[in-house]
Design goal:
The structure holds two protein chains of two kinds. Chain A has twelve helices and 16 strands. Chain A is α/β, with parallel strands linked by helices. Chain A has a single domain, classed as FAD/NAD(P)-binding domain (3-Layer(bba) Sandwich). In chain A, strands 1, 2, 5, 6, 7, 8 and 16 form a seven-stranded mixed sheet that branches. In chain A, β1, α1 and β2 form a beta-alpha-beta unit. Chain B is mainly alpha-helical. Chain B is 56% helix and 0% strand. Chain B is built from ten helices and no strands. Chain B starts with a helix and ends in a 7-residue tail after the last helix. The chains are: A alpha/beta, B mainly alpha. At the A-B interface, α2, α5, α9 and α10 of A face α1, α2, α8, α9 and α10 of B.
Chain lengths: 553, 195
């Protein structure tokens, strides 16, 4: 399970990368195969395909891949004037703690952003009370890296009517359509909308030495037991390790980035698997720990020189957190779908992607069709039942039994606006299992985020009717109490006063500190961020490699 | 129960927040692993219960049997859900034993003349549970019944996968072939039985 190369703690490696997920795994592969010595820190264990299983109770309800500790040492509040508390229920910010990060347990919906996502502030104007802004880069600049994700990571799919231009076709066809996809197509056709193939980071056929999907159905929340899901664990980490220049240090939790007298990052401090404090010296440090952990680490690294946290002269570290609001509708059909088989999503509708002034609020999003909670039995019983049925007793049982194979969800992911009030800070009292200050989440969706979710829900209900659902219902749209998409907390930008990293992911304040993950986002996109995180990582790797080669770090 | 619709609507609204964080019984992965291990060990040893006494086991089993009742199809009883309860209670990390015992004691205290819940007929049992269906204790019983019923049988319940058979879930053994269902069969050809 351990990497074959071991670097000495007190000799500086070329790069320390904190985080082995969607961005960290790519940066590790790109830099190590270019000959740089890299140590990757991952706080979770080094699980591989053979370690993944179909135990719903442990994986979904025990949150095994998240850490397996209820609450995971985090606190939440919906108002900065309140005291944050550790929730009784789910962990507030949810990301997999395992080598490969959340690319291991995600559902693998994988669409590209469109041109407009990068320049909406210019297109639409400012939105008062928000930090709505353009990205410093365009779709055109990122396009070659989206293509690299398609081919190097492995994306199956087919072009849709609204897609941004692509320089190369998909490397493989989509997975076959499921019943949920057929029904979305049926509904969309009736309403004059366009159901299109859902691109997936799941191989439909063998690619780059990995096998195609076996259609077991355990994608959402689960790790893939055959490496058909295109996690960085499956697609990148093995190549990084094979380079002989990359060491993965799992179960190692970084708690501080140290800077030297010249104001440069010099080493990271971490707890090793035995809980002992260690340090690793490095010539440069890259943070790819996700939008919550990257912000926490920077805030924890405060010093006399950097009293508000590292790379935080702007005060933007931890701010502008965006989750992507969402909505869920459910429908039961006459015949069996058995949609628990196979990857979750096969079709989506992007007719409502763009902003439309006439709606009276900012935003847009996609709708897709999937089993969601009816993919596994416990989730179905806990979350999938219609509102007019008692939640125990004979009718409960009969309805569960009848609906499980006949049910689907049309769900929508949406824009979230960047706000000062939505942020990651250090909890002043609580700590996590390592004794680090707890991640304190403060979040309250913007009214427009909820409005666009409601708008997509109304459209989804119409689609369910048009698809012929015998019964359909909507989940009430509620304020977020947590999220999986951790975006915006160290945004990229050209102005050091209003951003944390440059367009090339170099922190404005510390020349040899780079940040690349969901925290780099300036806007939220429309609900599926991971492909863009990965494209940014390939691009960042190019920029960092060039800078290192030019001795400009 | 003539206001059942209103009640269930209210419960739905409560549980709707669950995916975002209010009502999940959080056991934690290490405790779950040991519950599964204990269940396997107990099965091998043929032990009745690791922790529960006979009377309280009968009460908990009776509650579970009203949450997922037996009809012409198997319910919590046939699935052996009580064995899941037993293993979960036995692991203190689950934190469920004391709330469950306290809740049961309170419930039995509302019955007359030392009657226990398990002694009531099922109509009376439903009526009694109807009066506490919004309580934390009932929610714990409900969640544990669902977990025990549907979790892998290595956790102690779902005996012979009766729960999965009930809902038409063909188990989790792996690779499926298209068509999966009725509607995609129109595209892929073939047909799907089981209607």
């Amino acid at each position: 399970m351990a990497s074959s190369v071991h670097f000495k703690n007190d000799e500086a490696v070329d790069f320390v990368i904190v985080g082995s997920g969607s961005a960290g795994g790519i940066l590790a592969k790109e830099l190590s195969t270019a000959g740089f010595d890299v140590v990757v820190f991952e706080q979770g264990p080094y699980r591989k395909a053979a370690d993944f299983h179909h135990d719903e109770l442990a994986t979904i309800f025990g949150e095994e891949l998240l850490n397996g500790i209820p609450g995971n040492g985090q606190t939440f509040r919906d108002d900065p004037n309140k005291k944050a508390v550790m929730p009784q229920g789910r962990t507030p910010v949810r990301y997999a703690q395992t080598v490969g990060g959340s690319s291991v347990h995600f559902t693998a919906n994988f669409w590209r952003f469109r041109e407009l996502d990068f320049k909406e502030r210019s297109l639409l104007g400012s939105i008062s009370g928000t930090n709505f802004a353009d990205w410093p880069i365009s779709y055109e600049e990122l396009e070659p890296y989206y293509t690299k994700v398609d081919w190097d990571i492995g994306v199956s799919g087919a072009p849709g009517p609204f897609d941004a231009p692509r320089s190369k076709p998909f490397p493989m066809p989509p997975l076959p359509i499921k019943s949920s996809g057929v029904l979305l197509e049926r509904g969309a056709k009736k309403l004059g909308l366009h159901a299109q193939v859902q691109p997936l980071a799941i191989l439909s056929q063998p690619h780059n030495g990995r096998p195609g999907c076996i259609k077991c159905g355990y994608c959402m929340f689960f790790g893939c037991e055959v490496n058909a899901k295109s996690s960085t664990l499956a697609a990148m980490i093995p190549l990084a390790e094979a380079s002989g220049h990359c060491e993965i240090r799992a179960e190692s939790a970084v708690f501080r980035v140290e800077t030297d007298a010249k104001g440069r990052a010099s080493e990271v401090l971490y707890y090793d698997p035995a809980g002992k404090e260690r340090s690793q010296k490095a010539r440069a440090v890259i943070l790819s720990a996700n939008g919550a952990e990257t912000a926490r680490l920077l805030l924890m690294s405060a010093s006399a020189q950097h009293p508000d946290g590292l790379a935080n002269s702007s005060g933007f570290v931890g701010r502008n957190l965006m989750f992507n609001a969402h909505q869920v509708t459910q429908g039961v059909f006459e015949h069996q779908l058995n949609d628990y088989k196979g990857a979750q999503v096969s079709r989506m509708v992007h007719d409502f992607y763009e902003n439309d002034e006439k709606r009276g609020f900012y935003g847009g999003g996609g709708i897709d069709s999937r089993p969601l909670w009816s993919a596994t039995p416990i989730l179905h019983a806990m979350q999938g039942m219609p509102p007019d049925v008692p939640n125990w007793g004979a009718q409960f049982k009969d309805e569960m039994a009848h609906n499980f194979t006949r049910q689907l969800c049309f769900i929508g992911g949406t824009t979230s606006l960047a706000l000062d009030r939505n942020n990651i800070t250090l909890d002043p009292e609580s700590t996590d299992q390592w004794g680090r200050p707890a991640i304190r989440l403060t979040y309250r969706d913007h009214d427009d985020d909820l409005a666009v979710a409601k708008f997509l829900q109304d459209r989804s209900m119409e689609l369910l009717d048009a698809a012929g659902a015998e019964k359909s219902w909507r989940r009430p749209i509620e304020l977020s109490t947590g999220g999986e998409h951790l975006l915006g907390t160290c945004r990229m930008g050209d102005d050091p006063a209003t951003s944390v990293v440059s367009r090339d992911h170099r922190s404005h304040d510390i020349p040899n500190l780079f940040i690349c993950d969901g925290s780099s986002f300036v806007t939220s996109g429309r609900g599926q961020p991971t492909m863009t995180i990965m494209a940014l990582a390939f691009r960042a790797a190019d920029k960092i490699r060039a800078a290192a080669t030019a001795l400009d770090i | 129960m003539n206001n059942k619709k209103d009640l269930s609507r209210r419960r739905f609204l409560q549980s709707a927040g669950a995916i975002g964080g209010t009502a999940w019984l959080r056991i934690g992965a290490p405790a779950l692993a040991s519950i599964a291990q204990a269940a396997c060990t107990a099965k091998e040893a043929g032990a009745p219960f690791a922790l529960l006494g006979e009377a309280e086991a009968a009460d908990f089993a009776a509650i579970a049997a009203r949450i997922i009742p037996t009809s012409n199809t198997p319910g919590a009883t046939e699935a052996g859900v009580i064995h899941f309860f037993d293993r979960a209670f036995a692991d203190e990390r689950s934190g469920s034993l004391n709330p469950a015992r306290d809740g049961l004691a309170e419930l039995n205290a509302t019955l007359r003349n030392g009657t226990r819940f398990a002694d009531l007929d099922t109509t009376k049992q439903d009526a009694v549970l109807g009066t506490i269906e919004n309580s934390a204790f009932f929610n714990l019983m409900r969640v544990m019944t669902i977990f025990g019923f549907f979790a892998m049988s290595s956790y102690g319940g779902n005996k012979d996968n009766v729960a999965w058979d009930l809902i038409g879930f063909e188990g989790h053994h792996g690779a499926w072939e298209y068509p999966f269902g009725y509607y995609d069969a129109e595209v892929h050809g073939g047909s799907v039985d089981g209607e």
